[in-house]
Design goal:
The complex is a heterotrimer of chains A (about 550), B (about 300) and C (about 350). Chain A has about 550 residues and is α+β, with helices and mostly antiparallel strands. Chain A is about 30% helix and about 20% strand. The longest helix of chain A is centred in the N-terminal third of the chain and has 25 residues. Chain C has 15 helices and no strands. Classes of the chains: A alpha+beta (about 550), B mainly alpha (about 300), C mainly alpha (about 350). Chains in contact: A-B, A-C, B-C.
């Protein structure tokens, strides 16, 4: 034994010494160089928000649903932004753009960018990036690119100098500025460094693969982590061009929570700072009663209406449609919607360009019977179909209400619950489109064009938005004129005229103008809802004061 | 015991023996408490379905009426099961709901049996390509749980009770094919079938006189149990929104309508659900009892 | 010799069945009314955009070409893009498979632990009161629609338990999920020593697993009972009794083992069955598993996801059946060299 212990050779001793030395040095190196740096820890303010559905994409050229757009709005900046002022008016204001002007004929828009705007990787945002972003959106052809269909093609955006660019439109388009709130600028340099092979020639796949998991934006928040279907986390971008308020969130956690009950429970416990807008009106009433909870309520830029198929008997008969419009109990429906105001035509109430003097129906059973008579159909002779979206309870109740109203005057109703996907599919032809459907329609830009031209011009037929299958040459020509008018004031007047003509045709039962509600704890300050989908979830606005 | 008698027999005397057996079976059935309980439950539900307009407190609530002012009232003396989202009496709707569930089960299984049994017979009798094709197709259909198949089909079609019936028949027929095929195979080996063939009996005769009688017991048990499963599956499909549409007082549809207000407003969902359980329990008890009585091995 | 031959034949049959299944579901999915391109692009898309995406997704080619393309890519691991997540469906499915497997395993485990004793009790006391009670109990479990049990439990917990204890009624975990090693929250949280996550995962799995197990308890009980009854008829029992061996010993040492073969087969079958049928429970409890994903895919006409899920379920089902049949053949040598096993 003793002999063996002494028999550790010198070689082994040296080896052991070297190993110990390396370990010690390595440890020092690790701690000093890589270890926690004793700098001033920035105060972490975490904000937690529920998503009612999963985020499908974070690519600004593809996002169209609420949660995806929320991600995009925080990671990227658009050229213009929808803003709600103190007095309630909403306007599209320049955002990345410093100043702009449009040519006499309305075909050329010249814009100058603000200087010194940085992307998350430090590169400066220039006109090159804007042109690249627009071309990218048009080439990929998804997301909101339909806003510029027929108006812009890839290559129509000219880079004049570092901060100036021009849009050369193919035809005059008066809503153009309002659509630029959906043009988010991506980092050209970063994307070009990460191209994969694809269909776009020198641009490969246009960075689609890269943008599946990364952000190439300039927005107030960077993508920190994304566990699909579970949670997406954003972290603050310190060099954001708008600067920062003192108590803005440094980190935002958006959790996917599909069940309303869970959202409410977690919110009450304080684990969520806000709820989303999709809770039922009854739930919001309940939340209002809780001290320390604020429920923000305002008119939304969204109408709920029941479009009628104007190409399928019996709803192709105008007097039949009038009968339906007079039979419906608007008051009860609005009550069911939590006290929402009745809609006036297709354009939501708070929008600049909403026509005040359109034809608005109110329940009048006598008139309903009169018009049914005038239409030539006898009571008890016809049955029509109404489709609603299965998941939406309020729609189902309104269908039950309508069925009861219509059966009173002798029109039979079949209620059918479909999924959203199937309704979109049924909408593609006048034969398959149901007589009546339940549709919420939210504005994607602050302009009446989307709810007039975008729904009732004969060229847009085939989607759920135009499920009325309206085909009216007078309305068509007014809408075309409105789009082509360069002067914005004149254009709005024409849009108002179009609304009057549209409501006169009774293409739908315009039920209510939705109220946007959202609940938050009183430590959340600065929330503002301009009305366009997801733009209220622009986290930069918020400050957390008085939570802990 | 009864099987042994059947198998030994030659056609004419089997009839007399069968009557004997039925009487014996009925005696055993009466002694089996579970089957009696099951039968009573089913008779009660059938009675509910037939007498619905007369025994419901508010029969008009099963239709298109809406009374939103009375919505979501908890169970009380006026409304024993409370009111639902449109103010309708839940008890009345539950009573009317029996009609839809029973009709569904009856129609689905009729279709399934009418398709499945003949196919199984053909596959069993005609060995060869036809038999192989039929059984392979059956295997493919059986590779999926029936409800998944039914789900897939209902999504193709417009949601309605009728389409749900077709979809479920689509998912249920293969079981009967396989059952009958199995019986046909095992019976084919038996001597008396060989004898019959030698005597020149046609395949159809063999099918009806030898194979089918052996199948009847397991088929009856399976149909009874399946009635319960079909009602369960149907409730599930309606729950997902694919079945009967509002304002039809179908139990599954009612459960789906009440779902968003759980757990605080539980009565529009729980009572129809209990009705489903009660009815299915009846079929299960009856089926289990029958299985014992008819001495059948069916999985 | 015969064993491997049997195995080979079964494997080939499985491939054919899966192929047949894939054709069936592929055509159903394609025939589903609902233009996936339009759905993917969202509500506002114009005709031109939809047409372009249709080209991209190859939806304009004849069906059989689409099918061949699909099978080719399937084998290579490209299961097509899910229209909801824009990712390879295979990854979506692999993401969610552990959740379903975890739920099914716990549920089945519970079903065995409860079902077998009930079955033994019923079998040993055949036709006596205990038999009737346990059978009714088991049958009741079979009579409840699974989703309804889930709802009842949620209501019960909310009204009775939640007042004292903070018990969750939906979701898979309340805290941040543990670091993903196997994908099973219970295992991963233990491995990484994340006790909070473990406790939360256990809390969340109890209700859905119990709900899922209910129907299986009945089936397991029934089979155990039948097995026990059958054993009672056997000669060796008579001999054991004659030799004076205590009743309990007979039951648990000898009979159960022999009766267990049939129970084993049903456990295997139930496993495959539950994975495919768990979607109702997953929907009610918002359990992010394969079933939930499949239902959503069906409702949203996410074609690739639908086909992917169905094929996955089919594969699991087929392989479980195969394993069960093999085990059965292995355990019971009488079957091994016999005729066709169904």
């Amino acid at each position: 034994m003793l002999i063996e212990r002494e028999a550790i050779t010198r070689l082994q001793a040296v080896a052991i010494a070297v190993i110990i030395a390396v370990a010690v040095i390595g440890g020092i190196y690790y701690y000093v160089i890589m270890g926690p740096t004793p700098t001033t820890e920035e105060k972490k303010i975490i904000f937690t928000y529920p998503f009612q559905q999963i985020v499908s994409t974070i690519d600004p050229a593809k996002a169209t649903d609420e949660t995806s757009c929320c991600a995009v709005i925080n990671m990227y900046d658009p050229l213009f932004f929808p803003v709600k002022f103190e007095n309630g008016t909403r306007k599209t204001v320049p955002w990345l753009v410093e100043e702009w002007f449009v040519s006499e004929d309305g075909m050329t828009y010249t814009m100058k960018l603000k200087e010194g705007i940085k992307f998350h990787d430090g590169t400066e945002l220039t006109a090159e990036d804007v042109a690249f972003s627009m071309d990218r959106m048009l080439s990929i052809g998804m997301g909101f690119s339909y806003l510029w269909e027929g108006v812009l093609q890839p290559g129509d955006t000219e880079v004049v100098d570092k901060y100036t660019f021009k849009f050369h439109l193919r035809k005059p388009y008066s809503p153009f500025i309002s659509t630029l709130i959906q043009l988010f600028v991506v980092n050209k340099k970063l994307i070009m460094e990460h191209l994969e092979p694809g269909d776009f020639g020198e641009y490969g796949d246009y960075g689609q693969k890269y943008l599946e998991d990364h952000d190439a934006g300039s927005g107030p928040y960077k993508l920190k982590s994304w566990e699909r279907g579970v949670e997406i986390v954003f972290e603050k971008f310190d060099d954001y061009w708008r600067g920062w308020k003192e108590n803005s969130p440094t980190e935002v956690h958006c959790k996917v929570i599909l069940e309303e009950a869970t959202v409410v429970t977690l919110f009450k416990k304080g684990e969520l700072d806000m709820t989303h807008m999709w809770l039922t009106p009854e739930t919001f009433e309940e939340l209002k009663q809780i001290p320390g909870v604020i429920v923000d309520e305002d008119l939304a830029l969204q109408i709920f209406h029941i479009p009628m198929n104007m190409k399928k008997p019996p709803t192709d008969n105008k007097w039949f449609r009038y009968a339906i419009c007079y039979a419906f109990d608007y008051e009860t429906a609005c009550e069911l919607a939590g006290g929402a105001p009745q809609a006036e035509g297709p354009v939501p109430l708070p929008v600049e360009g909403h026509a005040e003097d359109v034809l608005v129906f109110h329940r009048n059973v006598t008139l309903a019977q009169y018009y049914l008579n005038k239409s030539g159909y006898k009571p008890g002779e016809v049955t029509i179909d109404i489709v609603y979206i299965t998941a939406v309870e309020l729609e189902r109740k309104i269908c039950l209400l309508l069925k009861s109203n219509l059966e009173e005057i002798g029109i039979g109703v079949n209620i059918i619950g479909e999924t959203w996907g199937r309704l979109c599919d049924l909408a593609t032809s006048p034969e398959t489109a149901p007589h009546l459907s339940c549709i919420y329609d939210r504005m994607k830009t602050l302009h009446p064009d989307s709810h007039t031209y975008g729904k009732y011009h004969s060229s847009v037929q085939g989607t759920w938005r135009s499920i009325s299958w309206m085909e009216n040459s007078t309305i068509d020509s007014i809408l075309e004129q409105a789009r082509a008018t360069a002067d914005p004031e004149e254009a709005l007047e024409l849009y108002k005229e179009a609304q009057r003509l549209i409501t006169y045709e009774a293409p739908a039962i315009f039920v209510f103008n939705n109220i946007h509600r959202i609940a938050m704890h009183d430590w959340v300050k600065g929330y503002v809802d301009p009305g366009i989908m997801s733009f209220d979830l622009y986290w930069w606005n918020l400050e957390i004061i008085g939570r802990d | 015991m009864s099987r042994a008698v059947l198998e030994a027999g030659i056609s004419e005397s089997t009839l007399k023996y069968k009557l004997e057996d039925l009487r014996r079976a009925w005696y055993r059935f009466k002694k089996n408490k579970l089957s009696i309980a099951g039968l009573s439950i089913i008779l009660f539900v059938v009675f509910m379905a037939i007498a619905a307009p007369y025994i419901s407190p508010y029969p008009e609530d099963a239709g298109a009426v809406v009374k939103f002012e009375q919505a979501y009232q908890p169970p009380s003396w006026e409304h024993l099961f409370g009111t639902d989202e449109a103010g309708r009496d839940v008890l009345s709707r539950v009573i009317f709901g029996a009609r839809y569930s029973l009709t569904l089960a009856f129609v689905v299984l009729t279709i399934a049996v009418c398709i499945g049994v003949p196919l199984g017979l053909i596959a069993g009798l005609y060995k060869g390509l036809i038999s192989d094709i039929i059984m392979r197709v059956t295997d493919v259909f059986l590779a999926l749980p029936s409800i998944v198949l039914a789900l897939a089909v209902t999504v193709v079609l417009s949601p309605s009770l009728i389409n749900v019936m077709w979809a479920m028949a689509f998912g249920w027929w293969p079981w009967y094919t396989r059952l009958v095929y199995g019986e046909a195979l095992s019976v084919k080996q038996e001597d008396f079938v060989e004898a019959a063939k030698l005597l020149g009996a046609s395949k159809i005769r063999i099918a009806f006189k030898e194979i089918l009688p052996n199948c009847i017991s397991p088929i009856i048990v399976k149909i009874t149990l399946d009635m319960g499963f079909v009602i369960l599956a149907g409730a599930g499909l309606s729950f997902l929104g694919l079945g009967a549409q509002p304002p039809t007082p179908d139990w599954g549809t009612m459960m789906s309508e009440g779902r968003s207000h759980l757990p605080t407003i539980w009565w529009p969902t729980v009572f129809p659900g209990l009705a489903v359980c009660f009815t299915v329990l009846g079929f299960n008890l009856l089926g289990d009892g029958l299985r014992d009585v008819l001495d059948v091995e069916v999985t | 010799m015969k064993y491997t031959e049997y195995l080979a034949r079964r494997l080939i049959m499985i491939v054919f069945t899966i192929l047949g299944l894939s054709i069936l579901i592929f055509f159903i999915a394609r025939v589903l009314p609902g233009d996936p391109a339009r759905l993917a692009l969202g509500p506002e898309a114009s005709e031109a955009q939809v047409e372009r995406l249709r080209e991209l997704l190859g939806l304009n080619k004849p069906l059989y070409i689409q099918y061949f393309d699909y099978v080719l890519r399937l084998i290579q691991g490209d299961w097509g893009l899910s229209l909801l997540t824009w990712r390879n469906t295979l990854y979506d499915i692999l993401d969610r498979l552990p959740a379903s497997i975890e739920l099914t395993t716990i549920a089945l485990g519970f079903a065995v632990i409860v079902g077998v004793p009930i079955g033994v009790l019923a079998g040993v006391n055949k036709d006596k009161k205990t038999d009737y009670i346990s059978r009714t109990f088991a049958l009741t479990g079979l009579s409840f629609p699974r989703f309804f049990v889930g709802i009842l439990l949620q209501v019960f917990v909310y009204f009775c338990v939640a007042q004292f204890l903070d018990w969750p009624i939906s979701g898979r975990i309340g805290t941040k999920p543990p670091v993903r090693i196997t994908g099973f929250y219970l295992i991963d949280s233990l491995i990484t020593g994340n006790l909070r996550a473990f406790v939360s995962a256990v809390q969340h799995i109890v209700l859905p697993a119990f709900t899922l197990s209910l129907a299986s308890i009945a089936q397991i009980a029934r089979l155990t009972r039948a097995g026990i009854i059958e054993q009672y008829r056997k000669d060796y029992i008579l001999q054991a009794k004659a030799l004076g061996i205590p009743e309990n010993l007979i039951i648990y040492k000898y009979m159960l083992k022999n009766a267990f073969t049939s129970v084993l087969t049903i456990i295997g079958l139930l496993y495959g069955f539950l994975i495919g049928n768990a979607f109702m429970v997953e929907t009610v409890f918002v359990w992010p598993g394969l079933g939930y994903y499949g239902v959503r895919a069906l409702l949203f006409k996410d074609l690739n996801a639908i086909v992917g899920v169905v094929i996955t379920i089919g594969i699991i089902y087929a392989f479980v059946n195969l394993i069960v049949d093999l085990l059965y053949g292995y355990i019971d040598p009488r079957i091994r060299y016999g005729e066709e096993i169904r």
